[in-house]
Amino acid sequence: MSESKKDLEEFQREISHWLKANKPADPEFLLPETFMEVGTDRQFDFLRNWQQKVYEAGYLGMAWPEEYGGRGRHQEYQNIVNREMAEQRVPFVPNTIGLNWAGPLILQRGTEADKQKYIKGILNAEDIWCQGFSEPDHGSDLGNVQCKALKDGDSYIVTGSKIWTSLATYAKYMILLARTSNTDSNKYAGLSFFLSPMKVAGIDVQPIKKLTGEYGFCQTFFNEAKIPADCIMGNEGEGWSVAMATLTFERGAAGGQAGGLSMMDLNVNDIVELAKHSRRNGQPVLDDPLIRDELVQLIMDDRSNRLMSSRSRIPALRGERPAAVAMSGKLRGSELKRRMTKFAISLQGANGSRYVGSSAIDGGRWQRSYFNSFSATIGGGTSQVQKNILGERVLGLPKS
Amino acid sequence: MSNQINFTEEQSMLLDTAMSFCQSHSPIETVRHQIENHKFDAEQWQAMVELGWLGISIPEKYAGLGLGLGEVVPIVESMGRNLMVSPFLASTLATQVLVHGDNENLKNKYLPNIVNGSIATLAIQELEGAWDINLNEALGKREGELITLSGTKFQVLDLDVAEIVIISILLDKQVVLICIDQKEIPPENIKREIVIDETRNSFSLDLNGLKIQSSALVKLKDLKVIEQSALLLLSAEMCGGLASTLNTIIDYLNTRKQFDRLIGSYQALKHPTVDILLALEALRSHLYYTAGQFGDGDSSDGDLEVALHMCKALASESFAYAGDRCIQFHGGFGFTYECDAQLFLRRAIWSQYQFGDEKYHRQLLAKLLLDECA
Ligand SMILES: Cc1cc2nc3c(=O)[nH]c(=O)nc-3n(C[C@H](O)[C@H](O)[C@H](O)COP(=O)(O)OP(=O)(O)OC[C@H]3O[C@@H](n4cnc5c(N)ncnc54)[C@H](O)[C@@H]3O)c2cc1C
User: Fold this and answer.
1) Domain A268-394, CATH 2.110.10.10 — does that match?
2) pTM score, two decimals?
3) What is the distance between the alpha carbons of residues A122 and B315, in angstroms, rounded to a whole number?
């Protein structure tokens, strides 16, 4: 199915117009910057309403099959929506784990019944999803998770705990990686993957205060929680391969996501604008050659990321390592955002020490953003782990 | 500024041809052999002439192919990958002065010859080592129809084999270009120079006492054409060099063992190597974006200027970094002349300081990007 340029251009105008007309007004409270930081009910309600509105208008899951609640259109339409949402700075849609990793996973590997049961609720934000991978003692070393799920008739009994679970307070379902067997010599072989319900006896969610002082992620405790046996995805012992497939979606290295925006976009132009109006020690910051040089480097790196996407769409220019661009997207994007927000604070002179709640510059947005930027350099596999992956899978270097 | 790379059918074909041509004509043993012998490889040059490469950026009415300098990028990139020793870079750059200049007689006289293999070169640099051509001090003094030259040029590439020499001089307080036959220069005025990159054939040129006809003057609408062409082609060559440096590092990390492990398993080596990969991916993206913008080489285009400064800034920094790490990651062997790492580091440094290093270009970028509406 190929789409005519004219249709796409027309659609671009349509969505641009719709977003302008329907973009919600800024609430009187601070919104979270990513789905990993939804900490209060009013933040959550605001964002869930927004997702519902976008879905009902037909702009989410556009390339997902119609029979499950998608719109059955060409991926290019969704791409246009995603870009336009970022451009127009609309709020993000909060059900990211459902939309962008559990959802595509279910469409790729789930049973017909799974698709009927889950997809629509993911899209319309009725059913929020969370991810139970990390544990207190095993984060980067995900293959070592110890949370147990033992088969008991037509149930599994789950015992253990998951941590850093974003959205857990609001979630109806969790993608859960747990150990169904301890006897295997290979740590990966005992793992299984579940589409687990959250609202069952024995599952308790405890919010955790983040470095910003707000709430965002949680610890999830399983105390002999009974979940239905048929919520396992694949067979017992196949959990690692399903988890890896999930991470490919999560890190954006595979297509198939429902789309939408999963975090507030920070553009380097925002930083340039800030710099143009900032003063440091009585001087415009743009008079300082060191500041200028650092800013130019940020502008170049931002542009590099954009041009890389463009080049990766040209087959003849993909070069000898075609996976490099897609597989490094999360690393490049998250590290750049961290550097940009950190730089923004440096433009404020002594006001760099202020924070949200006092008379900080821009309400303390930059200080908070810098703290929050670590969500993406740590969550979803730390930057260091991303470099291991790139070194091993893209460059073919031996395992560390 | 757009984020879309325009990549043409011609570029794609040239990339394929050039990759295999350079690989087969310039294996590393050949490069080393040429470093030792300084012998011009006439056969290889003739092969390039036959492929039409010397005429790519020359208009059809002077027997060229009438494409842009953007189409030359895949060739120079491939040469860079193989550290190829060739007057191609110097000659293509010098050609741009004639192509964009106003002197119809000289175009008719030289351009068709260049297409057929006459080598041209540029003599711009002076002792001071300034990058801005407007800071040139070599003088031309008018005496009727003759212009008498004084001063010395340095780092003139391939002057021994060039037939056509384009020289920048200060005439009537303005920097202008003159184009002469190399034969007009007494051999004793040409001296071989030692430069850090031994694959370069570099010379000084003593201008004192040379007298030339004022018909040899070439006026450019904008002197920037020279810098812009150089930035594009140097970045292309550096991008190729960076790719090979990365491959050289990876090869060693995958063969050398210490403490019973391949050294590539150590993150202190693995992570910087990934940084180099990402720098390469970035540079190559900037490079082909810029190549796609080069089209008619309109030097007044602000976007093109930004794109070129970004290319050279990124190329200078990342190639020098990769060359530096390439030495370190080879251990004691990296300290030897025999190890190829030095070839890449030498190439990287030579290129870094031609036509501006990363700090210089970032400074110019700051002006273009941050001051426009301040
Ligand atoms: C905001 C946020 C939201 C999150 N949301 C979720 C969620 O919804 N669900 C979920 O399951 N998890 C979630 N996580 C958890 C996240 O995936 C883990 O924190 C991450 O994988 C790192 O694991 P860890 O915290 O145990 O750190 P560790 O693995 O203990 O890492 C500590 C340090 O050691 C480094 N390190 C570890 N191993 C290596 C190695 N092999 N090589 C080099 N360096 C190494 C790390 O880079 C890091 O700097 C979230 C995290 C954050 C910050």
Assistant:
1) no
2) 0.94
3) 45
